Amino acid sequence: MFLYEKKLQFPVKIATPNPKLAAVIISQYGGPDGELGASMRYLSQRYSMPYAEAKGLLTDIGTEELGHMEMVAAVVHQLTRNLTEEQIKDSAFAPYFVDHTTGVYPTAASGFPWSAAGIQSTGDPIADLTEDLAADGAMA
Amino acid sequence: MFNELTGARSNTPGAANGTTEASCPDGNGTMPSCAGLAVPYVPFQQNNPQKYSQTEALSNGTLFPGLNLPFHLKVEGSTVPATPLAELQALEFVVLELGTYLDTHKDDTEAFNLYKQYAAMEKAAKAAYESKFGPLTKSAAAAGDSYQWLCDPWPWNYEQNEVK
């Protein structure tokens, strides 16, 4: 099971909102190589992992990725606070805003909502670990 | 080409498993069926690696200088503010890093002793933080005089002390 700690893993304090940046960073939340995908990837793959060392790693790292997810969400939330109409119109953030306003929604920057199609759990530990290298090597 | 490949293979330590050339015929094309196509290699972290201080660890995103391979070779870490929360976050990060390291190095007694020390320090620091700034866990919320869990700050707010 999981217990919540009411704090981030690393401080997030963004003085200057920037919706254009948020429109890109959201991919690290809900994109195919984002933190949500990383969590689901590791926490799902651990059930078919036969080795205790790797069961431990998949559990501990999968849990840590949940904390990363929260940090990225906090970044997006702070980048999009107190926006003016001018900051939204004609900006890269407009397509996101029309669907989600400033709600934090797990989506890729390309607009594709988070999908388990971006991760894999094969039941084969070698295949899974190889997928992990590709996914987390792309954007740790 | 066939003879070169099988010759190389028989010289590989650990590859000698009684397989002879006869059991490895090149019957289906130019590549012998027993030839390794590629051998991936991942350097394995050794026991008792060098470690950063807790603030340096949090700043660099790793406890271990040997694993600090920054994106685009940008060497400087992030700035960690000098706040009570950041000090707790740094301690917790070291506990997290050592715990992950021990998953694959459970017999490194020096690391395990360090893990115990940092876990004790983190426990004390968290209790001190909670007594001043409110509960970080539901169990700590149960220890207060009244239910303080819903009080600001929430972690994602601009400042943890921001009141909306």
Topology:
The complex is a heterodimer of chains A (140) and B (164).
Chain A (H helix, E strand, L loop, with lengths): L18 H12 L4 H11 L6 H28 L5 H4 L5 H7 L24 H14 L2
Chain B lengths: L1 H9 L43 H7 L23 H21 L4 H25 L4 H5 L22
Helix pairs in contact in B: 2-3, 3-4
Topology order of chain A in helix (H) and strand (E) letters: HHHHHH
* N-C termini distance of chain A: 25 Å
Q: Note the gap between the termini of chain B.
A: 74 Å
User: Taking all residues together, what is the mean pLDDT of chain A?
Assistant: 94
Q: Provide the number of structural domains of chain B.
A: 2
Give the fraction of residues assigned to helices of chain A: 40-55%
The share of residues in extended strands of chain B comes to under 5%
Largest interface: A-B, 25 and 29 residues
Quaternary assembly = heterodimer
Question: Overview of this structure, please?
Answer:
The complex is a heterodimer of chains A (about 140) and B (about 160). In chain A, helix 2 packs antiparallel against helix 6 (about 125-140). Chain A is elongated. The longest helix of chain A is centred in the middle third of the chain and has 28 residues, at about 50-80. Chain A is mainly alpha-helical and about 140 residues long. The model of chain A has no long low-confidence stretch (mean pLDDT about 95). Chain A is built from 6 helices and no strands. Helix content of chain A is about 55%, strand content about 0%. In chain B, helix 3 (about 85-105) packs antiparallel against helix 4 (about 110-135). Mean pLDDT of chain B is about 80; it is low at about 1-20. Chain B folds into 2 domains: about 1-45, no CATH class; about 55-140, no CATH class. Chain B has about 160 residues and is mostly helical. The interface of A and B includes residues 53 and 73 of A.
